[in-house]
Amino acid sequence: MGGIVIVGAGQAGASLAAKLRALGYAGAVTLIGEEPQPPYQRPPLSKAYLLGEMELERLHLRAPAFWQEQGVTLRLATRVEAIDTEARTLRLEGGETLGYDDLALTTGSRPRRLPAAIGGDLENVFTVRTLSDVDRMAPAFRKGARALIVGGGYIGLEAAAVAAKLGLQVTLIEAAPRILQRVAAPETADFFRRLHAGHGVRILEGAALSRLTGEVRVTGAVLADGTELAADLVIVGIGILPDTRLAEAAGIALENGIRTDDLGRTSAPHVWAAGDCASFPRGEGRIRLESVGNAIDQAEAVAANMLGAKTPYRAKPWFWSDQYDVKLQIAGLNAGYDRIVTRAGEGGALSVWYYRGATLLALDAMNDARAYMIGKRLIEAGRSPDPAAIADPATDLKALLG
After folding, report:
1. Mean pLDDT over residues 189-217, rounded?
2. Rounded-to-integer distance, Cα 173 and Cα 326, Å
3. pTM for this one?
4. 104 has which bridge partners?
5. How far apart are CA 264 and CA 274, in angstroms?
6. Euclidean distance between CA atoms 61 and 295, whole angstroms
């Protein structure tokens, strides 16, 4: 057969391949990616790279020589067309067949796009996911150009921040009653609304898009209430979807992503999954996490389990977002919270702590690394300080770890 084959050369795929070698696996490892570039970081694409603050080479997760030194075969600019789980083979574009002993699916996610019927295929309408996406949009980022951001989640807000820093006129529309409605408390949303307003970004909430306008290139947008907005470019940040197309066509079970057990095994023998594309057990339910941290940790756990470790994956969720001079750090998952506690830090820093009853679930820390690190340790240890102690500025947070 063909050793271990990994389909998807993003953060999870690269981490899985490297971990296999670190754990002493001596068989063949093949890493297949659709993009022509070796594995690279995605978070800086729409920030430091688009701003011109990071060179392409610095995006690479590993120096190109690493893969050769580790005996990992990179198959770049290569699309897998089908998986035959019974024969344990892949069919590549062009007709080549590749066998495997074990297969890891780290196919990641793909951005939601606007339908062509409402102008989603007009020129200068962009999504932000790949290096080629950012390279295509870079020429449109001219000082004074009118940028419309569709979506008030973290993807949209980060795009708005970069556009504003580059001197564009920025309007962001969010169909929900407020920005960050699905992912953060009103207190966090208020913080970022003020931040963006201070940088000249116009935010319209409860503003659903009806359609984009233009014949070939986008010229503007019409909102559901009839409001018309002019635009030279549009960035669509309305979420991502797990890329499950290969798995689904192969008959592998799906459930908000590729369904895995707590070891990372899918419903097909000898097929595993990790990263954005995979859903896995957590507590009484299942979860799928879209983050660099999870992509690395889950992929490394799956690598060990492919080699026989049989260690269940226990996620420790953490996330981040950079906007202007603010670093947001998030620990835990806030689903089901019923109480918010805020704590002011130095120099305008703020942390927002999420509780369900007396249980600390998560926190958002804006320019407050100390609160983040302490809160993360508390959450991972299953400890929940008295909310009143968190709210009291006289409380030494570090003492709560004692």
Report:
1. 98
2. 21
3. 0.93
4. 6, 272
5. 7
6. 13
